[in-house]
Amino acid sequence: MNESNENLIWTIKNGEFEAVQAQFLNSNRNVNDCIGGRAPLHYAADFGQLKVLKFLVKIGANVNSLDKYSVTPLLAAIWEGHVECVEFLLQKGADKSGTTPDGRSYLEAAEKQEIKQLLSQ
């Protein structure tokens, strides 16, 4: 992984919004290109960075992309318990009918009641 990619992952994980914005707006970087087997949206969902998540979707991130583990950004947010990220991804058309790599439904994988409620709607 090159330094630019490592820097992008770091800025996403830490919610450094302006730095993430600059990485995409000042380059020809594709928002859906995988870095380390995961799309930028996966990292934002994993770390609960809602503002970054919204920006990535706004510039064309695929809310149903699969990472190298067959995990979607929605499942990453479910596993990490990021209610607002789950809600946003569902509003943007994320498929809640997927399954975890071990075959459980997203509803079964959810631990937080608020997320279970969102997935049941």
TrEMBL record:
Xref: SMART domains: ANK
InterPro entries documented for this protein: Ankyrin_rpt, Ankyrin_rpt-contain_sf
Keywords: ANK repeat, Repeat
Positions annotated as ANK repeat: 36-68, 69-101
Residue ranges of the TM segments: none
Entries under PANTHER family matching the protein: ANKYRIN REPEAT DOMAIN-CONTAINING PROTEIN 39-RELATED (PTHR24171), BRCA1-ASSOCIATED RING DOMAIN PROTEIN 1 (PTHR24171:SF8)
Protein name: CG31715
